[in-house]
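Our consortium's second objective concerns turning raw sequence data into structural hypotheses that experimental partners can test. To show how far this objective has progressed, the report includes one record in full. It was chosen at random from the queue rather than selected for favorable results. The single chain below, 194 residues long, was entered without modification.
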Amino acid sequence: MNEMIQKMKTRHAIRRFQDKPIEEELLDQILEAGLYAPSAGNNQYSRIVVCQDKEVNEKLGKINRYMQFKGNDPAKVAHSISNDQPSIQDDFTIMNGYYDAPCVLTIFTRKGPYAQSDGAMIAENIWLAAHFLGLGACYIGRTGEVFATEYGLEMRRKWGVPEDMEAVCNVILGYCEGPMPKEKPRKESRIIKV
């Protein structure tokens, strides 16, 4: 099997991180990979905000976790995600939806019908690049809701994000704490050849 495809098969969501910063050279390579993601009509109208401020990430991460449950009892609405790398769905004591990652990326794209697609492609490139370079990553949703809050709006103004852009997703990055998750089997009958 092709080495790159084999490497893609070992990519997992990482939610437990070492308290260790990412070297600037590695981070720059990962961000560059994100910039080379496809975009609708090659518009390249996106921004990747890199936040390594622990206090800001914790505050936004708590808002993100709240948005997942919105005051509902987590035990009644959660479902199992991972035993290896538990999510806020698995472990209700995790209060930070960014899992205390040392680096949180927020992807902003131009509002419109292709915003989610453009953001997801950037996120996937970033995630794969991080994995190929020995770092852990995880895609985090609920980003639009987080950046619609008072604190989220304050941060995007502080970061200088243009008003015609929307927050699409986050990717959290860092060095994996503990062993890498085990490969999970793929469900069958997901490919239809016609």
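The partners drew two points from this record. The helical segments are 3-8, 24-35, 54-69, 74-77, 115-132, 143-146, 150-159. The CA atoms of residues 51 and 104 lie 5 Å apart. Both points have been shared with the crystallography group to help prioritize constructs.
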